[in-house]
Amino acid sequence: MDARNKVRAPQTGKGEKVADWADGRLGIYTLAKTQMRKVFPDHWSFMLGEVCLYSFLILILTGVYLTLFFEPSAAEVVYNGSYEPLNGIIMTRAYESTLDISFDVRGGLLIRQIHHWAALVFVAGMLVHMMRVFFTGAFRKPRELNWLFGWTLLFLGIITGLTGYSLPDDLLSGTGLRFAQGAILSVPIVGTYLAFFLFGGEFPGHDIISRLYPIHVLLLPGIMLGLVVAHLILVFYHKHTQYPGPGREQKSVVGMPFMPVYMAKAGGFFFLVFGVLSMMGAIATINPVWAFGPYRSDLVTTGAQPDWYLGFSEGLIRVMPGWEINAWGHTLQLGVFIPFSLFPLIMVAIGVYPFIEAWITGDKREHHILDRPRNVPTRTGLGVAWLSLYGVLLIGGGNDIVATHLHLSINAITWFVRIGFFVVPVIAFIITRRVCMALQRSDRDKVLHGRESGVIRRLPHGEFVEVHEPLTPAQLFTLTQHEQDPPYDVGPLVDANGVERKVKPSQRLRARLARAMYGQNAQIPKPTVEEYRELTSSDDHHH
Protein backbone atom coordinates (compact mmCIF):
# COMPACT_ATOMS: atom_id res chain seq x y z
CA MET A 1 0.00 0.00 0.00
CA ASP A 2 1.23 3.48 -0.86
CA ALA A 3 2.32 5.38 2.20
CA ARG A 4 0.44 8.41 0.90
CA ASN A 5 -2.82 6.46 1.15
CA LYS A 6 -2.37 5.65 4.82
CA VAL A 7 -4.72 7.48 7.19
CA ARG A 8 -2.74 9.69 9.50
CA ALA A 9 -3.41 9.27 13.21
CA PRO A 10 -4.69 12.48 14.80
CA GLN A 11 -1.93 14.39 16.55
CA THR A 12 -2.22 14.65 20.32
CA GLY A 13 -2.28 18.19 21.68
CA LYS A 14 0.27 19.38 24.22
CA GLY A 15 -2.38 19.84 26.91
CA GLU A 16 -3.61 16.29 26.43
CA LYS A 17 -0.06 14.97 26.60
CA VAL A 18 0.50 16.77 29.90
CA ALA A 19 -2.79 15.41 31.23
CA ASP A 20 -1.88 11.86 30.18
CA TRP A 21 1.55 12.21 31.74
CA ALA A 22 0.08 13.44 35.04
CA ASP A 23 -2.66 10.80 35.06
CA GLY A 24 -0.14 8.01 34.50
CA ARG A 25 1.81 9.08 37.57
CA LEU A 26 -0.80 10.58 39.88
CA GLY A 27 -4.04 8.92 38.82
CA ILE A 28 -5.81 12.27 38.81
CA TYR A 29 -8.25 11.40 36.01
CA THR A 30 -10.29 9.01 38.13
CA LEU A 31 -10.25 11.44 41.05
CA ALA A 32 -11.31 14.36 38.86
CA LYS A 33 -14.02 12.30 37.16
CA THR A 34 -15.65 11.42 40.48
CA GLN A 35 -15.18 14.74 42.30
CA MET A 36 -15.28 17.56 39.73
CA ARG A 37 -18.93 16.81 38.90
CA LYS A 38 -19.93 16.56 42.55
CA VAL A 39 -23.19 18.41 43.20
CA PHE A 40 -23.24 21.28 45.68
CA PRO A 41 -26.48 22.89 46.94
CA ASP A 42 -26.89 26.63 46.56
CA HIS A 43 -27.79 28.88 49.50
CA TRP A 44 -26.48 32.28 50.56
CA SER A 45 -25.46 31.06 54.04
CA PHE A 46 -23.00 28.59 52.51
CA MET A 47 -20.92 31.59 51.38
CA LEU A 48 -19.96 32.26 55.00
CA GLY A 49 -17.47 29.40 54.88
CA GLU A 50 -16.11 30.72 51.60
CA VAL A 51 -15.55 34.14 53.18
CA CYS A 52 -13.41 32.42 55.84
CA LEU A 53 -11.42 30.49 53.22
CA TYR A 54 -10.76 33.50 51.00
CA SER A 55 -9.86 35.73 53.95
CA PHE A 56 -7.35 33.10 55.05
CA LEU A 57 -5.79 33.00 51.56
CA ILE A 58 -5.57 36.81 51.53
CA LEU A 59 -3.94 36.71 54.95
CA ILE A 60 -1.27 34.35 53.60
CA LEU A 61 -0.65 36.49 50.49
CA THR A 62 -0.40 39.78 52.36
CA GLY A 63 1.55 38.17 55.20
CA VAL A 64 4.23 36.93 52.80
CA TYR A 65 4.64 40.49 51.50
CA LEU A 66 4.95 41.93 55.02
CA THR A 67 7.58 39.39 56.10
CA LEU A 68 9.91 40.74 53.41
CA PHE A 69 10.20 44.06 55.25
CA PHE A 70 9.45 43.39 58.92
CA GLU A 71 12.35 42.80 61.36
CA PRO A 72 11.33 40.93 64.55
CA SER A 73 14.04 42.42 66.71
CA ALA A 74 13.88 44.04 70.14
CA ALA A 75 17.18 45.84 69.58
CA GLU A 76 16.82 49.52 70.45
CA VAL A 77 17.42 52.17 67.79
CA VAL A 78 16.84 55.92 67.45
CA TYR A 79 14.20 56.65 64.85
CA ASN A 80 15.10 59.03 62.04
CA GLY A 81 12.57 58.28 59.33
CA SER A 82 9.72 59.73 57.33
CA TYR A 83 7.31 60.17 60.24
CA GLU A 84 8.79 63.33 61.77
CA PRO A 85 6.79 63.44 65.07
CA LEU A 86 8.71 60.34 66.23
CA ASN A 87 12.18 61.42 65.07
CA GLY A 88 14.76 61.10 67.82
CA ILE A 89 12.61 58.64 69.84
CA ILE A 90 14.17 55.42 71.10
CA MET A 91 12.26 52.36 69.89
CA THR A 92 12.76 48.73 68.97
CA ARG A 93 13.76 47.69 65.48
CA ALA A 94 10.41 45.88 65.19
CA TYR A 95 8.50 49.13 65.69
CA GLU A 96 10.85 51.04 63.38
CA SER A 97 10.39 48.49 60.59
CA THR A 98 6.61 48.72 61.04
CA LEU A 99 6.84 52.49 60.55
CA ASP A 100 9.03 51.94 57.49
CA ILE A 101 6.43 49.55 56.03
CA SER A 102 3.71 52.12 56.69
CA PHE A 103 5.47 55.19 55.26
CA ASP A 104 8.39 54.14 53.05
CA VAL A 105 7.55 50.77 51.43
CA ARG A 106 5.47 51.17 48.28
CA GLY A 107 2.00 49.88 49.09
CA GLY A 108 3.14 48.84 52.55
CA LEU A 109 0.42 50.62 54.51
CA LEU A 110 -2.28 49.29 52.20
CA ILE A 111 -1.01 45.71 52.56
CA ARG A 112 -0.75 46.13 56.37
CA GLN A 113 -4.32 47.33 56.60
CA ILE A 114 -5.67 44.67 54.23
CA HIS A 115 -3.87 42.08 56.37
CA HIS A 116 -5.42 43.39 59.58
CA TRP A 117 -8.92 43.74 58.11
CA ALA A 118 -8.67 40.25 56.63
CA ALA A 119 -7.78 38.90 60.09
CA LEU A 120 -10.89 40.49 61.60
CA VAL A 121 -13.11 39.24 58.77
CA PHE A 122 -11.54 35.77 59.02
CA VAL A 123 -12.38 35.38 62.71
CA ALA A 124 -15.81 36.99 62.28
CA GLY A 125 -16.55 34.73 59.34
CA MET A 126 -15.56 31.63 61.31
CA LEU A 127 -17.75 32.65 64.24
CA VAL A 128 -20.80 33.35 62.05
CA HIS A 129 -20.16 30.21 59.98
CA MET A 130 -19.98 28.05 63.12
CA MET A 131 -23.18 29.64 64.42
CA ARG A 132 -24.90 28.73 61.15
CA VAL A 133 -23.63 25.17 61.55
CA PHE A 134 -24.75 25.13 65.18
CA PHE A 135 -28.26 26.49 64.68
CA THR A 136 -29.00 24.19 61.73
CA GLY A 137 -27.51 21.04 63.30
CA ALA A 138 -24.91 20.59 60.57
CA PHE A 139 -22.48 19.25 63.19
CA ARG A 140 -24.34 15.95 63.58
CA LYS A 141 -23.03 12.60 62.36
CA PRO A 142 -20.92 12.24 60.26
CA ARG A 143 -19.58 15.82 60.63
CA GLU A 144 -18.47 15.87 64.26
CA LEU A 145 -14.78 15.89 63.25
CA ASN A 146 -15.36 18.76 60.85
CA TRP A 147 -16.94 20.71 63.71
CA LEU A 148 -13.81 20.09 65.79
CA PHE A 149 -11.63 21.21 62.87
CA GLY A 150 -13.64 24.42 62.61
CA TRP A 151 -13.53 24.95 66.35
CA THR A 152 -9.75 24.47 66.38
CA LEU A 153 -9.40 26.92 63.49
CA LEU A 154 -11.41 29.51 65.43
CA PHE A 155 -9.29 29.03 68.56
CA LEU A 156 -6.02 29.16 66.59
CA GLY A 157 -7.30 32.20 64.68
CA ILE A 158 -7.80 34.06 67.96
CA ILE A 159 -4.31 33.14 69.16
CA THR A 160 -2.78 34.03 65.79
CA GLY A 161 -4.49 37.42 65.94
CA LEU A 162 -3.05 38.01 69.42
CA THR A 163 0.47 37.16 68.29
CA GLY A 164 0.07 39.21 65.11
CA TYR A 165 -0.94 42.55 66.56
CA SER A 166 1.70 42.14 69.27
CA LEU A 167 4.57 42.09 66.74
CA PRO A 168 4.79 45.87 65.94
CA ASP A 169 5.73 46.57 69.59
CA ASP A 170 3.71 49.77 69.75
CA LEU A 171 2.17 51.02 72.98
CA LEU A 172 -1.20 49.40 72.29
CA SER A 173 0.18 45.95 71.47
CA GLY A 174 2.60 46.15 74.40
CA THR A 175 -0.32 46.85 76.71
CA GLY A 176 -2.04 43.76 75.33
CA LEU A 177 1.07 41.67 75.97
CA ARG A 178 1.23 43.02 79.51
CA PHE A 179 -2.39 41.94 79.95
CA ALA A 180 -1.57 38.44 78.67
CA GLN A 181 1.50 38.20 80.90
CA GLY A 182 -0.56 39.12 83.96
CA ALA A 183 -3.10 36.44 83.09
CA ILE A 184 -0.35 33.83 82.75
CA LEU A 185 1.15 34.85 86.11
CA SER A 186 -2.20 34.13 87.78
CA VAL A 187 -1.92 30.40 87.02
CA PRO A 188 -1.23 28.69 90.37
CA ILE A 189 2.24 27.23 90.98
CA VAL A 190 3.48 27.23 87.38
CA GLY A 191 2.37 30.72 86.29
CA THR A 192 5.68 32.39 87.08
CA TYR A 193 7.65 29.70 85.28
CA LEU A 194 5.42 29.95 82.21
CA ALA A 195 5.76 33.73 82.05
CA PHE A 196 9.54 33.61 82.47
CA PHE A 197 9.83 30.92 79.82
CA LEU A 198 7.69 32.84 77.32
CA PHE A 199 9.19 36.29 77.86
CA GLY A 200 12.74 35.18 78.59
CA GLY A 201 12.77 36.75 82.05
CA GLU A 202 11.01 39.72 83.57
CA PHE A 203 8.48 41.54 81.41
CA PRO A 204 8.91 42.78 78.74
CA GLY A 205 12.27 41.08 78.15
CA HIS A 206 14.13 41.01 74.83
CA ASP A 207 12.97 37.67 73.40
CA ILE A 208 9.20 37.92 73.12
CA ILE A 209 9.04 39.51 69.64
CA SER A 210 11.53 37.12 68.10
CA ARG A 211 9.60 34.22 69.64
CA LEU A 212 6.16 35.42 68.56
CA TYR A 213 7.34 35.96 64.97
CA PRO A 214 7.90 32.30 63.92
CA ILE A 215 4.77 31.30 65.85
CA HIS A 216 2.72 33.88 63.93
CA VAL A 217 4.15 33.44 60.43
CA LEU A 218 5.04 29.74 60.41
CA LEU A 219 3.75 27.49 63.19
CA LEU A 220 0.12 28.61 63.57
CA PRO A 221 -0.53 29.30 59.85
CA GLY A 222 0.97 25.90 58.97
CA ILE A 223 -1.34 24.10 61.39
CA MET A 224 -4.32 26.13 60.19
CA LEU A 225 -3.54 25.43 56.54
CA GLY A 226 -3.49 21.70 57.26
CA LEU A 227 -6.81 21.96 59.11
CA VAL A 228 -8.37 23.94 56.24
CA VAL A 229 -7.31 21.25 53.75
CA ALA A 230 -8.65 18.48 56.00
CA HIS A 231 -11.88 20.45 56.47
CA LEU A 232 -12.42 20.79 52.72
CA ILE A 233 -11.59 17.11 52.10
CA LEU A 234 -14.26 16.08 54.59
CA VAL A 235 -16.78 18.45 53.00
CA PHE A 236 -16.16 16.69 49.68
CA TYR A 237 -16.23 13.23 51.23
CA HIS A 238 -19.41 13.64 53.26
CA LYS A 239 -21.19 15.73 50.57
CA HIS A 240 -22.62 19.11 51.47
CA THR A 241 -25.55 19.58 53.83
CA GLN A 242 -28.69 21.18 52.42
CA TYR A 243 -31.79 22.90 53.68
CA PRO A 244 -35.08 20.98 53.63
CA GLY A 245 -37.11 21.17 50.44
CA PRO A 246 -38.65 19.13 47.63
CA GLY A 247 -36.36 16.41 46.28
CA ARG A 248 -33.84 16.89 49.07
CA GLU A 249 -33.34 13.75 51.05
CA GLN A 250 -30.62 12.19 53.18
CA LYS A 251 -29.22 10.34 50.14
CA SER A 252 -29.72 12.93 47.40
CA VAL A 253 -28.40 16.46 46.86
CA VAL A 254 -30.15 19.12 44.79
CA GLY A 255 -27.76 21.70 43.36
CA MET A 256 -25.19 22.52 40.70
CA PRO A 257 -22.01 20.58 39.80
CA PHE A 258 -18.66 21.64 41.25
CA MET A 259 -17.22 22.07 37.76
CA PRO A 260 -17.82 24.39 36.03
CA VAL A 261 -20.71 26.17 37.79
CA TYR A 262 -19.56 26.16 41.42
CA MET A 263 -15.91 26.88 40.55
CA ALA A 264 -16.94 29.86 38.43
CA LYS A 265 -18.99 31.25 41.30
CA ALA A 266 -16.21 30.56 43.80
CA GLY A 267 -13.60 32.30 41.65
CA GLY A 268 -15.75 35.38 41.24
CA PHE A 269 -16.56 35.45 44.94
CA PHE A 270 -12.85 35.28 45.85
CA PHE A 271 -12.12 38.42 43.86
CA LEU A 272 -15.20 40.08 45.35
CA VAL A 273 -13.94 39.38 48.89
CA PHE A 274 -10.44 40.53 47.92
CA GLY A 275 -11.89 43.72 46.41
CA VAL A 276 -13.96 44.55 49.49
CA LEU A 277 -10.99 43.95 51.82
CA SER A 278 -8.78 46.08 49.57
CA MET A 279 -11.33 48.88 49.68
CA MET A 280 -11.53 48.63 53.47
CA GLY A 281 -7.74 48.70 53.70
CA ALA A 282 -7.59 51.75 51.45
CA ILE A 283 -10.25 53.94 53.06
CA ALA A 284 -10.61 52.73 56.68
CA THR A 285 -7.64 53.22 58.99
CA ILE A 286 -6.94 50.35 61.36
CA ASN A 287 -4.20 49.96 63.95
CA PRO A 288 -2.34 53.29 63.29
CA VAL A 289 0.77 52.32 65.26
CA TRP A 290 2.39 55.73 64.66
CA ALA A 291 -0.36 57.36 66.74
CA PHE A 292 0.39 55.15 69.76
CA GLY A 293 4.16 55.45 69.81
CA PRO A 294 6.67 52.78 70.86
CA TYR A 295 5.98 50.58 73.86
CA ARG A 296 7.14 51.73 77.27
CA SER A 297 6.48 49.66 80.37
CA ASP A 298 5.59 52.79 82.39
CA LEU A 299 2.85 53.96 79.97
CA VAL A 300 -0.58 52.69 78.94
CA THR A 301 -2.55 53.89 75.92
CA THR A 302 -5.76 55.77 76.63
CA GLY A 303 -8.75 53.57 75.82
CA ALA A 304 -6.58 50.52 75.12
CA GLN A 305 -8.78 47.90 73.47
CA PRO A 306 -7.97 44.51 71.96
CA ASP A 307 -9.45 43.34 68.69
CA TRP A 308 -13.13 42.47 69.11
CA TYR A 309 -12.62 38.70 69.21
CA LEU A 310 -10.57 39.04 72.41
CA GLY A 311 -13.17 41.28 74.04
CA PHE A 312 -14.71 38.15 75.58
CA SER A 313 -11.67 37.36 77.72
CA GLU A 314 -10.90 41.03 78.32
CA GLY A 315 -14.42 41.62 79.62
CA LEU A 316 -14.23 38.63 81.95
CA ILE A 317 -11.09 39.95 83.62
CA ARG A 318 -12.16 43.60 83.72
CA VAL A 319 -15.43 43.02 85.56
CA MET A 320 -14.23 40.27 87.90
CA PRO A 321 -13.90 41.47 91.52
CA GLY A 322 -10.31 41.70 92.73
CA TRP A 323 -10.31 38.55 94.85
CA GLU A 324 -7.10 36.99 96.07
CA ILE A 325 -6.03 34.39 98.62
CA ASN A 326 -2.78 34.53 100.59
CA ALA A 327 -1.71 31.19 102.04
CA TRP A 328 1.64 29.59 102.92
CA GLY A 329 3.55 32.49 101.46
CA HIS A 330 1.77 32.32 98.10
CA THR A 331 -0.82 34.62 96.53
CA LEU A 332 -3.60 33.21 94.38
CA GLN A 333 -5.15 35.91 92.17
CA LEU A 334 -8.70 34.59 91.81
CA GLY A 335 -9.77 37.90 90.26
CA VAL A 336 -7.59 37.06 87.25
CA PHE A 337 -7.32 33.28 87.30
CA ILE A 338 -11.07 32.52 87.38
CA PRO A 339 -11.94 34.59 84.27
CA PHE A 340 -8.70 33.45 82.58
CA SER A 341 -9.90 29.85 83.08
CA LEU A 342 -13.52 30.54 82.10
CA PHE A 343 -12.66 31.58 78.55
CA PRO A 344 -11.07 28.24 77.48
CA LEU A 345 -13.71 26.29 79.46
CA ILE A 346 -16.54 27.98 77.56
CA MET A 347 -14.69 27.35 74.30
CA VAL A 348 -14.27 23.66 75.22
CA ALA A 349 -18.01 23.41 75.95
CA ILE A 350 -18.70 24.69 72.44
CA GLY A 351 -16.26 22.17 70.96
CA VAL A 352 -17.76 19.10 72.65
CA TYR A 353 -21.43 20.08 72.23
CA PRO A 354 -22.04 17.79 69.20
CA PHE A 355 -20.96 14.77 71.23
CA ILE A 356 -23.13 15.83 74.19
CA GLU A 357 -26.21 16.20 71.98
CA ALA A 358 -25.52 12.86 70.28
CA TRP A 359 -25.30 11.23 73.72
CA ILE A 360 -28.58 12.84 74.84
CA THR A 361 -30.52 11.83 71.72
CA GLY A 362 -28.86 8.47 71.18
CA ASP A 363 -29.21 9.16 67.46
CA LYS A 364 -26.57 7.30 65.45
CA ARG A 365 -27.97 7.99 61.99
CA GLU A 366 -26.29 10.17 59.39
CA HIS A 367 -27.86 13.59 58.86
CA HIS A 368 -27.47 15.52 55.61
CA ILE A 369 -30.66 17.61 55.85
CA LEU A 370 -30.36 20.70 58.03
CA ASP A 371 -32.72 21.60 60.85
CA ARG A 372 -34.81 24.73 60.81
CA PRO A 373 -33.71 26.50 64.03
CA ARG A 374 -37.33 26.96 65.14
CA ASN A 375 -37.82 23.18 65.20
CA VAL A 376 -35.05 22.74 67.80
CA PRO A 377 -35.87 25.55 70.25
CA THR A 378 -33.62 24.41 73.11
CA ARG A 379 -30.51 24.24 70.93
CA THR A 380 -31.38 27.58 69.32
CA GLY A 381 -31.92 29.11 72.75
CA LEU A 382 -28.52 27.88 73.92
CA GLY A 383 -26.84 29.43 70.88
CA VAL A 384 -28.55 32.80 71.38
CA ALA A 385 -27.71 32.68 75.10
CA TRP A 386 -24.02 32.23 74.28
CA LEU A 387 -24.10 35.09 71.77
CA SER A 388 -25.81 37.35 74.33
CA LEU A 389 -23.14 36.41 76.90
CA TYR A 390 -20.46 37.32 74.37
CA GLY A 391 -22.16 40.69 73.76
CA VAL A 392 -22.37 41.46 77.47
CA LEU A 393 -18.70 40.65 78.03
CA LEU A 394 -17.74 42.67 74.96
CA ILE A 395 -19.30 45.67 76.69
CA GLY A 396 -17.24 44.81 79.77
CA GLY A 397 -14.07 44.63 77.70
CA GLY A 398 -14.67 48.21 76.54
CA ASN A 399 -16.25 49.61 79.70
CA ASP A 400 -14.03 52.70 79.66
CA ILE A 401 -14.84 53.49 76.02
CA VAL A 402 -18.57 52.97 76.61
CA ALA A 403 -18.43 55.18 79.71
CA THR A 404 -16.64 58.08 78.00
CA HIS A 405 -18.62 58.00 74.75
CA LEU A 406 -22.07 57.58 76.35
CA HIS A 407 -21.27 59.72 79.43
CA LEU A 408 -22.05 56.89 81.84
CA SER A 409 -20.51 55.77 85.09
CA ILE A 410 -17.85 53.13 84.55
CA ASN A 411 -18.86 51.54 87.86
CA ALA A 412 -22.48 51.29 86.69
CA ILE A 413 -21.35 49.62 83.45
CA THR A 414 -19.14 47.21 85.37
CA TRP A 415 -22.00 46.20 87.68
CA PHE A 416 -24.34 45.86 84.71
CA VAL A 417 -21.91 43.40 83.13
CA ARG A 418 -21.44 41.50 86.41
CA ILE A 419 -25.18 41.04 86.83
CA GLY A 420 -25.80 40.59 83.10
CA PHE A 421 -23.26 37.74 83.00
CA PHE A 422 -25.75 35.60 84.95
CA VAL A 423 -29.09 37.18 83.96
CA VAL A 424 -28.91 38.12 80.27
CA PRO A 425 -28.15 34.61 78.88
CA VAL A 426 -31.05 33.14 80.87
CA ILE A 427 -33.47 35.82 79.59
CA ALA A 428 -32.17 35.38 76.03
CA PHE A 429 -32.65 31.60 76.27
CA ILE A 430 -36.23 31.87 77.55
CA ILE A 431 -37.26 34.48 74.97
CA THR A 432 -35.64 32.59 72.07
CA ARG A 433 -37.26 29.33 73.11
CA ARG A 434 -40.71 30.94 73.31
CA VAL A 435 -40.23 32.61 69.93
CA CYS A 436 -39.28 29.27 68.36
CA MET A 437 -42.36 27.62 69.88
CA ALA A 438 -44.54 30.43 68.54
CA LEU A 439 -43.06 29.96 65.07
CA GLN A 440 -43.78 26.24 65.28
CA ARG A 441 -47.41 27.02 66.12
CA SER A 442 -47.52 29.40 63.18
CA ASP A 443 -46.19 26.69 60.86
CA ARG A 444 -48.74 24.20 62.16
CA ASP A 445 -51.58 26.68 61.61
CA LYS A 446 -50.27 27.51 58.14
CA VAL A 447 -50.19 23.82 57.17
CA LEU A 448 -53.75 23.19 58.38
CA HIS A 449 -55.43 26.40 57.28
CA GLY A 450 -53.25 27.75 54.48
CA ARG A 451 -51.54 31.07 53.93
CA GLU A 452 -53.20 34.42 54.61
CA SER A 453 -53.99 35.98 51.23
CA GLY A 454 -54.97 39.48 52.34
CA VAL A 455 -58.31 39.11 50.56
CA ILE A 456 -61.35 39.93 52.71
CA ARG A 457 -64.68 38.27 51.90
CA ARG A 458 -68.11 39.02 53.29
CA LEU A 459 -70.21 35.98 54.15
CA PRO A 460 -73.99 35.87 53.49
CA HIS A 461 -74.79 36.53 57.15
CA GLY A 462 -72.61 39.67 57.19
CA GLU A 463 -69.38 38.33 58.75
CA PHE A 464 -66.07 39.43 57.20
CA VAL A 465 -63.34 36.79 56.95
CA GLU A 466 -59.92 36.63 55.34
CA VAL A 467 -59.46 34.10 52.57
CA HIS A 468 -56.65 31.58 53.16
CA GLU A 469 -54.86 30.09 50.20
CA PRO A 470 -53.72 26.45 50.40
CA LEU A 471 -49.99 25.82 50.45
CA THR A 472 -48.23 24.16 47.56
CA PRO A 473 -46.97 20.57 48.03
CA ALA A 474 -43.41 21.95 48.13
CA GLN A 475 -44.29 24.34 50.95
CA LEU A 476 -46.14 21.62 52.85
CA PHE A 477 -43.14 19.31 52.56
CA THR A 478 -40.74 21.98 53.83
CA LEU A 479 -42.88 22.72 56.89
CA THR A 480 -43.52 19.09 57.81
CA GLN A 481 -40.42 17.14 56.77
CA HIS A 482 -38.68 17.37 60.17
CA GLU A 483 -38.72 14.39 62.50
CA GLN A 484 -40.18 14.43 66.01
CA ASP A 485 -38.86 11.33 67.66
CA PRO A 486 -39.82 10.72 71.30
CA PRO A 487 -37.02 11.68 73.70
CA TYR A 488 -34.88 9.07 75.42
CA ASP A 489 -36.56 7.46 78.42
CA VAL A 490 -35.12 5.11 81.03
CA GLY A 491 -38.35 3.07 80.95
CA PRO A 492 -40.23 1.67 83.95
CA LEU A 493 -38.27 1.70 87.19
CA VAL A 494 -39.92 -1.57 88.28
CA ASP A 495 -39.95 -4.70 86.08
CA ALA A 496 -42.86 -7.12 85.58
CA ASN A 497 -41.94 -9.03 88.73
CA GLY A 498 -42.05 -5.93 90.90
CA VAL A 499 -38.27 -5.77 91.25
CA GLU A 500 -36.79 -2.29 91.11
CA ARG A 501 -34.44 -1.80 88.19
CA LYS A 502 -31.03 -0.30 88.72
CA VAL A 503 -30.78 2.91 86.73
CA LYS A 504 -27.44 4.64 86.51
CA PRO A 505 -27.28 8.33 87.44
CA SER A 506 -25.97 9.04 83.94
CA GLN A 507 -29.11 7.46 82.47
CA ARG A 508 -31.36 9.59 84.67
CA LEU A 509 -29.44 12.71 83.68
CA ARG A 510 -29.66 11.76 80.02
CA ALA A 511 -33.43 11.25 80.28
CA ARG A 512 -33.94 14.62 81.97
CA LEU A 513 -31.86 16.44 79.38
CA ALA A 514 -33.67 14.63 76.57
CA ARG A 515 -37.07 15.69 77.95
CA ALA A 516 -35.85 19.28 78.28
CA MET A 517 -34.53 19.39 74.71
CA TYR A 518 -37.03 17.22 72.83
CA GLY A 519 -39.97 16.64 75.18
CA GLN A 520 -43.55 17.86 74.92
CA ASN A 521 -42.65 21.31 76.24
CA ALA A 522 -39.93 21.77 73.61
CA GLN A 523 -41.88 21.10 70.41
CA ILE A 524 -45.31 21.57 68.93
CA PRO A 525 -46.66 18.33 67.39
CA LYS A 526 -46.77 18.36 63.62
CA PRO A 527 -50.19 18.10 61.98
CA THR A 528 -51.12 14.52 61.27
CA VAL A 529 -52.35 13.34 57.89
CA GLU A 530 -55.81 12.76 59.40
CA GLU A 531 -55.97 16.32 60.77
CA TYR A 532 -54.96 17.78 57.44
CA ARG A 533 -57.46 15.69 55.47
CA GLU A 534 -60.28 16.45 57.89
CA LEU A 535 -59.78 20.21 57.52
CA THR A 536 -59.04 20.25 53.80
CA SER A 537 -62.08 18.10 53.02
CA SER A 538 -64.34 20.84 54.31
CA ASP A 539 -65.70 23.26 51.71
CA ASP A 540 -65.08 26.37 53.78
CA HIS A 541 -61.73 25.57 55.42
CA HIS A 542 -60.04 28.44 53.59
CA HIS A 543 -62.30 31.06 55.17
TrEMBL record:
- In this chain the Cytochrome b/b6 N-terminal region profile domain maps to 18-244
Q: Which cofactor names does the annotation list?
A: heme
Q: Which GO biological process annotations does it have?
A: respiratory electron transport chain
InterPro entries in the cross-refs: Cyt_b/b6_N, Cytb/b6-like_sf, Di-haem_cyt_TM
Coiled-coil annotation reads none
Question: Source organism's superkingdom?
Answer: Bacteria
Q: Which UniProt keywords apply?
A: Cell membrane, Electron transport, Heme, Iron, Membrane, Metal-binding, Respiratory chain, Translocase, Transmembrane, Transmembrane helix, Transport
Q: Which reaction does this chain catalyze?
A: a quinol + 2 Fe(III)-[cytochrome c](out) = a quinone + 2 Fe(II)-[cytochrome c](out) + 2 H(+)(out)
Q: Work out whether the entry's keyword set contains ATP-binding.
A: no
Top EC category: translocase
Protein localization:
Cell membrane
Q: Which residues cross the membrane?
A: 46-70, 114-135, 147-167, 179-200, 212-237, 266-286, 334-356, 376-396, 408-431
Query: Its membrane topology, per UniProt?
Result: Multi-pass membrane protein
Q: Where is the signal peptide?
A: none
The molecular function GO annotations come to: metal ion binding; oxidoreductase activity; quinol-cytochrome-c reductase activity
Name of this protein: Cytochrome bc1 complex cytochrome b subunit
Species of origin reads: Streptomyces liliifuscus
